[in-house]
From TrEMBL:
The lineage of its organism: Bacteria, Pseudomonadati, Pseudomonadota, Gammaproteobacteria, Alteromonadales. It catalyses: 2-(2-carboxy-4-methylthiazol-5-yl)ethyl phosphate + 4-amino-2-methyl-5-(diphosphooxymethyl)pyrimidine + 2 H(+) = thiamine phosphate + CO2 + diphosphate; 2-[(2R,5Z)-2-carboxy-4-methylthiazol-5(2H)-ylidene]ethyl phosphate + 4-amino-2-methyl-5-(diphosphooxymethyl)pyrimidine + 2 H(+) = thiamine phosphate + CO2 + diphosphate; 4-methyl-5-(2-phosphooxyethyl)-thiazole + 4-amino-2-methyl-5-(diphosphooxymethyl)pyrimidine + H(+) = thiamine phosphate + diphosphate. 2-[(2R,5Z)-2-carboxy-4-methylthiazol-5(2H)-ylidene]ethyl phosphate binds at T398, R399, T400, G430, V450, T451. Mg(2+) binds at D334, D353. Keywords: ATP-binding, Kinase, Magnesium, Metal-binding, Multifunctional enzyme, Nucleotide-binding, Thiamine biosynthesis, Transferase. CDD domains: HMPP_kinase, TMP_TenI. One of its GO terms (cellular component) is cytosol. Condenses 4-methyl-5-(beta-hydroxyethyl)thiazole monophosphate (THZ-P) and 2-methyl-4-amino-5-hydroxymethyl pyrimidine pyrophosphate (HMP-PP) to form thiamine monophosphate (TMP). It comes from Bowmanella pacifica. Belongs to the thiamine-phosphate synthase family. HAMAP family: TMP_synthase (MF_00097). This is Thiamine-phosphate synthase. Pathway: Cofactor biosynthesis; thiamine diphosphate biosynthesis; thiamine phosphate from 4-amino-2-methyl-5-diphosphomethylpyrimidine and 4-methyl-5-(2-phosphoethyl)-thiazole: step 1/1. It comes from the Bacteria. It is an enzyme of class 2 (transferase).
Length: 473
């Protein structure tokens, strides 16, 4: 519980606690576990809920089956209220010193499982709950599915005890619609007391700060990695994981992939010839490409959201020829086959496009590749592909495209610029002339935009002003 509160505090949340059991424990052993009476449990829950409604509830060890039932009843009520909290359960069975803390029986847990947005068992807890040892990817998925069938929204199997993954620590996220893997190198330290609680509390806190689940897990994992690297011995057993604030070092973040992604080793897409791509208009016609090149633009994108037709091919062919003549960096959006066929400078692909496109063909053809991202996890997925640039968006509200994600804002953009760690970066979404200096101050290498140019009453003047402002920013 101390680890929970330190984590919530360090990541910018405010934590309140409900004690389910009093334990006598130190870094070496747990010598007593005494569940509190049900009345005491429910009085604590009511006291907090009537005062400070939570954005998320993180549950740790529960004393016995009657507590699980009482808590489930309370959370069921909470879930029906207007601002239902997210509920995350770290089903603690053992302390990190090895002592048994609680027995976990699936039948007892069923009323709670169906209320969960996320459950975060390690390999032992998953096996205790489901009776299935996760000895490989298949058995892990079968075991996780047992919990999903009980109604849990998602299962994150923590990789600390998944020894078959070798030097890698892999955390597996499975929900009815999403399957992800978060991979880090194992941190070699005996000091990891409180790691499980810290991880789940970090996820809960970051979700409360309005990050999506994939980002919350990514940030929580980076928080754990930096905390393990910074852990020092205190007491005679494993020292506590350190609480070092919002993670910012790229090396602490896990790799992120969809389970459907095919691993692929290569030395990196052809680089762009400048760390800073500068002004990057995104337009939907050959006529715009021609005008922009004439006004001095040297990075641009042809984004025609249309199926492949001979007319489209002709437009793209002419745009590629114009781009070459002007020695410009012309990226083709989505239509990677045509881009390869016509020898374009580069291709821009989004996260969904990555699943359809033949990346190896783009790589072998020597085309540059830009990838869209909308947060920490997608940036990590993109980084693993070693693209020519990474686009970060959408920074401000945009009318140009329906975005499933929320605007990122400048603070997150600053963090993302650190995370891309040297890969050229592009900011996109709602960027206008007035916002150039603020966006440039984040250190991002380029500003991409649509309507600030295409809907301007004097686009040529706006482009010339944008070029000048970027130069001076
Ligand atoms: C520079 C840049 N950033 C992001 C996008 C968006 O790409 P994507 O997510 O694939 O969406 P569509 O543009 O295809 O609708 C982009 N095109 N360019
Ligand atoms: C294609 C795209 N991808 C993310 S935001 C965006 C549109 C940006 O348009 P605008 O500059 O008009 O906000
Ligand atoms: Mg696309």
């Amino acid at each position: 519980m101390q680890a929970d509160l330190l984590t919530v505090q360090a990541l910018g949340g405010h934590g309140c606690t409900v004690v389910s059991a009093i334990t006598a424990q130190n870094s070496v052993a747990v010598t007593q576990v005494q569940a509190v009476p049900l009345e005491v449990l429910s009085n604590q829950l009511n006291a907090l809920a009537s005062d400070l409604w939570p954005g998320a509830v993180k549950i740790g060890m529960l004393g016995d089956a009657s507590q699980i039932a009482a808590l489930a009843e309370f959370l069921h009520w909470m879930k029906q209220q207007p601002k239902a909290p997210l509920i995350i359960w770290d089903p603690v069975a053992r302390a990190s010193c090895g002592s048994q803390l609680a027995a976990l029986q699936l039948a007892d847990c069923a009323p709670l499982l169906r209320l969960l947005d996320l459950i975060t068992p390690n390999a032992n807890e998953l096996a205790l709950l489901t009776g299935i040892e996760p000895t490989d990817a298949t058995s892990l998925a079968v075991a996780a599915n047992v919990l999903l069938k009980q109604g849990a929204g998602a299962v994150l199997v923590k990789g600390g005890h998944l020894h078959w993954t070798g030097e890698e620590c892999q955390d597996w996220y499975l929900s009815p619609t999403k399957q992800w893997r978060f991979t880090s190198s194992r941190v070699d330290t005996p000091h990891g007391h409180g790691t499980g609680c810290t991880f789940a509390s970090a996820i809960a806190t970051v979700l409360c700060l309005d990050y999506p689940m994939d980002d919350a897990i990514c940030i929580a994992k980076a928080y754990i990695n930096q905390g393990l690297k910074g852990a020092v011995p205190l007491g005679q057993g494993p020292g506590p994981v350190a609480h070092l604030g919002w993670p910012v070092r790229a090396e602490d973040f896990p790799a992120f992939s969809l389970l459907a992604d095919t691993p692929w080793q290569h030395s990196g897409f052809t680089p762009v010839d400048s760390q800073s791509l500068g002004l990057y208009p995104v337009v939907d016609s050959l006529a715009w490409v021609e005008k922009l090149l004439g006004w001095g633009v040297r990075t641009l994108q042809l984004r025609i959201k249309q199926a492949l037709t001979p007319e489209l091919e002709e437009q793209i062919a002419q745009a590629v020829a114009l781009g070459k003549q002007a020695n410009a960096r012309l990226f083709i959006n989505d239509h990677w086959q045509l881009a390869i066929k016509l020898g374009a400078y580069g291709v821009h692909l989004g996260q969904e496009d990555l699943q359809q496109a033949d990346l190896a063909a783009i790589y072998q053809a020597g085309l540059r590749l830009g990838i869209s991202t909308h947060g920490y996890a997608e940036i990590q997925r993109a980084r693993a592909l070693k693209p020519s640039y990474i686009a970060l968006g959408h920074i401000f509200p945009t009318r140009t495209k329906d975005m499933p994600s929320k605007p990122q804002g400048l603070t997150r953009l600053r963090h993302y610029v650190d995370l891309v760690n040297g890969t050229p970066s592009v900011a996109i979404g709602g960027i206008s002339l007035e916002r150039v200096e603020a966006v440039a101050s984040t250190g991002v290498g380029s500003i991409a935009m649509v309507t600030a140019i295409t809907e301007a009453s004097n686009p040529e003047q706006v482009v010339r002003d944008l070029l000048a402002r970027w130069q001076n920013a």
